Amino acid sequence: MVAQKCQKGSQMNIIALIPARYNSTRFPGKPLALLKGKPIIQYVYERAANSGLFNTVCVATDNISILETVKSFGGKAVLTKESHPSGSDRIAEALQYFPQAELVFNVQGDEPLIEKEPLQKLISAFEDRKVQMASLMTVIEDREMIYNPNIVKVVTDTQNYALYFSRSVIPFQRDSQIDLKYYRHIGVYAYSPECLHRFVYLSPSILERTEKLEQLRALENGIPIKMVETSYQGIGIDTPQDLKTIEKLLSVT
């Protein structure tokens, strides 16, 4: 894998960490669930590794079975505590094994179809030295998704820094004559190591606990999140039904 150029052409050491918790509320054992005969976590790992963007790819898990599965297909994995309240907290523990990292990616363990293009765009965002944390958003094309609480919406300022994330409809469109785009948040993050450590040092915030959205901890504590627009739609797996949907998608592609 080749280190990427960022910040005035310098070579950066970039690591992708994949948080993989076993006891998902809606889908226990999700990382090990088979998608066309292969564990979900293997799809995510291979997509990240094959992108060629990262010096290191590693799974951060709380479960020995996930650890052994990753190692069985030749991947790297480390064991972390079960008690972490979010994926970012989990990868921060794993980061201690990679002190050389200059840019840290949190690649969700339930995004088996993650593509290179949005990951590359996130790296490019750090060409601006002011950016310390960044994430992805995409235009919502299906209007029904706007009202789905499982679809996280984001609104930004004129510089594409996040103002708020919510499971509710944001913004609320009082005047239907306004031509408005709604954006869906895709939960892939990139941080400087210093920003990640600052984030996990903070206690889970009231808005984070209310909406069950870890990124609100950053906003409540004054950590700006640069949002990067992508055409990638972010097909994640939250439930067994989502798994069946992606299986059908892979069968026709």
UniProtKB/TrEMBL annotation:
One of its GO terms (biological process) is lipopolysaccharide biosynthetic process. Pathway: Nucleotide-sugar biosynthesis; CMP-3-deoxy-D-manno-octulosonate biosynthesis; CMP-3-deoxy-D-manno-octulosonate from 3-deoxy-D-manno-octulosonate and CTP: step 1/1. The keyword Transferase applies. Its EC number is 2.7.7.38. It catalyses: 3-deoxy-alpha-D-manno-oct-2-ulosonate + CTP = CMP-3-deoxy-beta-D-manno-octulosonate + diphosphate. Keywords: Cytoplasm, Lipopolysaccharide biosynthesis, Nucleotidyltransferase, Transferase. One of its GO terms (molecular function) is 3-deoxy-manno-octulosonate cytidylyltransferase activity. It is found in: Cytoplasm; Membrane. CDD domains: CMP-KDO-Synthetase. Its main location: cytoplasm. It is an enzyme of class 2 (transferase). GO terms for cellular component: cytosol; membrane. Belongs to the KdsB family. Activates KDO (a required 8-carbon sugar) for incorporation into bacterial lipopolysaccharide in Gram-negative bacteria. PANTHER family: 3-DEOXY-MANNO-OCTULOSONATE CYTIDYLYLTRANSFERASE, 3-DEOXY-MANNO-OCTULOSONATE CYTIDYLYLTRANSFERASE, MITOCHONDRIAL. This is 3-deoxy-manno-octulosonate cytidylyltransferase. It comes from Cloacimonas acidaminovorans (strain Evry).
